[in-house]
Design a protein that fits this description.
By secondary structure, the chain is mainly α. Helices cover 71% and strands 0% of the residues. The protein folds into two domains: 81 residues, Helix Hairpins (Orthogonal Bundle); 31 residues, no CATH class. The protein contains five helices and no strands. The structure holds magnesium ion. The site of magnesium ion has 4 residues, from helix 2 and helix 3.
Amino acid sequence: MADEDTTLQELKEWVARFRDERDWRRYHNPKDLAVSISIEAAELLEVFQWRNQKEVEAMLRRDGLRKVKAELADVIVYCVSLADILKIDLSEAISEKMRENSEKYPVSKTKGEYKKYTEL
Ligand SMILES: [Mg+2]
């Protein structure tokens, strides 16, 4: 599988099938999935904790990228699960958010700037 030939719908179905084969749907409620996203995001942060930029780069060249990949996948699996049970179309949600971001951060005001839109 690769990003080029996999749709979000296919990932959604795969994650739901994994969940349903184990009869875990009853545990997958919006609150616990949101909690799980946050826990996995914290595990992603843990990979970088206490390391400066140079140490992060060295860690990523060693086995760190494998850890980042695994934790990032955990985050995304829970995001896909939450979208599935709430019937959120992720492509629609992401395109709406990107449209909003484009309005908040017009290129003319933000190119090369990292300020939040409220500070522009
Ligand atoms: Mg994890």
